[in-house]
Write a structure and sequence with these properties.
The chain has 60 residues and is mainly beta. The protein has one domain. 12% of the residues lie in helices and 38% in strands. It has a two-stranded antiparallel sheet. It has a two-stranded antiparallel sheet with strand order 3-4. A hairpin with a 2-residue loop joins strand 3 and strand 4. The longest helix is centred in the last third of the chain and has 7 residues. The protein starts with 15 loop residues before the first strand and ends with a helix.
Length: 60
């Protein structure tokens, strides 16, 4: 084990494939930042321009 000191350190995060219907067609995107909020929901961090955002908002 090595002490990194007071620095911002990146740590491995799992990549997750998110799917949603956009305009009644399936769409998929790879997301590298998610968090578990509770047993039945997760938090997904996406920038506004992502195409899949529309489908996620419409279908949950």
């Amino acid at each position: 084990m090595k002490n990194l000191g007071p620095v911002l350190a990146l740590y491995p995060m799992p990549m997750v494939v998110i799917g949603a219907n956009v305009n009644e067609k399936p769409s998929w995107t790879l997301v590298g930042h998610i968090g578990i909020v509770s047993h039945d929901s997760v938090l997904v961090s996406l920038a506004k321009p992502h195409y899949i955002n529309k489908g996620i908002k419409e279908t949950g």
